[in-house]
Amino acid sequence: MRQVVAVFVVTRVALFFTVLAAVTLFPPAQCSVCRSASTNGFLSALANWDGAAYLEIARRGYQQLDASYAAYFPLYPLLMSVGGIVGSTEAYVVAGLVVSNTACLAAAALLARLSDEAGHSGLATATTYLLIFPTTIFLSALYADSLFIALAIASALAARRSRWWASGALAAGATLARPFGMLAIVPLAVALWTRRGALRFRDVVPLALGPVAFAAWVAYLYGMTGDPLAIIHGYTSGFTPRQPLQAFTDLLDPTVYGFPWLVAGLFALFVALTLLAWRAASGGLAAYATAMMLVIGGAGSLTSSMRYELSVYPAFISLASITRRAPARIVWSLISFALALLLAGMFALYYWVG
Predict the structure, then answer these.
(1) I need a labelling partner for 245 at 20 to 30 A (CA). Which of 64, 99, 146, 161 fits?
(2) Is residue 256 in a domain?
(3) For residue 277, is it within any domain?
(4) What is the pLDDT of residues 41-96, one digit of tens each?
(5) DSSP characters over 45-62
C-alpha cells in the first residue's frame, strides 16, 4: 500500500505542477465552445471540457439545463453537490476534485489488490501503469472516470470473494457514474455463472441491481423530459452519429484526429492486451475488458478512446505481466509518463486530448 500511495502522490504532484505551469506560461487554445469554470486559473484548468458540464449539473440540477446534459450520469455531480454547503463555484470544483482524486487513489489500491488476487502477486506495476497512462490527468480532473473505475474494480473484487450483494451494489454505483457503467456487472455475471451449481436464487438477484439502477435513471429522465431515449439523444447532441468503421477510416482525416498515430497505436495495444487478459487475468476480468473494447471500437469515433481505455483496467494487469524485466518497465514508464505530462498541459490549455 505504501508503494501505491507513493506513486499516487508523485504522479499527482507532477501532473498538478504541469497544469499550473501550462496555464501560467502559455496562452490557451482558441475554443468557441469552451468556458472557464472558475476565476482561479488552476481550478478552471482542471475543470475543462466535460468538467464544466458536471459543474453546471452539481450547481443547478438537470431540470434547469438542456437535454444534452442527460449524457452525464448523476452519481459524480451528486457527490460534487456537497460543495453547495459553502456555495461558491470554487467549492463545487474543489469537492469534485476531492472525489476524483480520492477515487483515483482507491482505484489504484484496489487494482493492486485485484492483481494479487488474480494470481499476479507483486504486480503493483499494474497500478503504476494506470497512474502514469498518457491520459491519467482525467483521473484527477473534474471527470467521473476515476469514480467509475474504483467502483468497477471494487465490484469485481467483491465478485471474486462471492460477496454477491456487495458486488451488485457497487456495480449499480458504477452504472450511475458513466454511460457505459453497466458493463461493471460483467465480472459478477461471469462469477455467478461459474458457480451456478451451488447458487440459490437470492444469490443471483444482485445481478439485477445494475440494470435496475440504469432503468431508474432512464425513468427519471423520461419523467423530466418526456423522451424515453434522452440518454442517447443527449449523448449524440454534440456530434453527428457515425458508422462504427468510421472510427478507423477517419484516422486518415486530420480534421477529426489531432494525433491519429497515438490514438491508433494505443487502441491496437489495448486490443492486444485485452486478448492477453484471457490468459493473464480471470475470465470475468477478460470478459469485461472485451466488452469495454467492443464499446470503444464500435462507438463510431475514437476521439475519446485514449480516455476510455483507462477504464479497461484488466489491460494494465496484462501489461504488467509482459513487462516483468526492468528495461521493459523503465522504457514504457518513461514514454507513458512523458506523454501524460504533455497531455496534461495540453488539456489545461483547452486542447482536446480525450
Answers:
(1) 146
(2) no
(3) no
(4) 999 999 999 999 999 999 999 988 888 899 999 999 999 998 888 778 899 999 99
(5) HTT-THHHHHHHHHHH-S
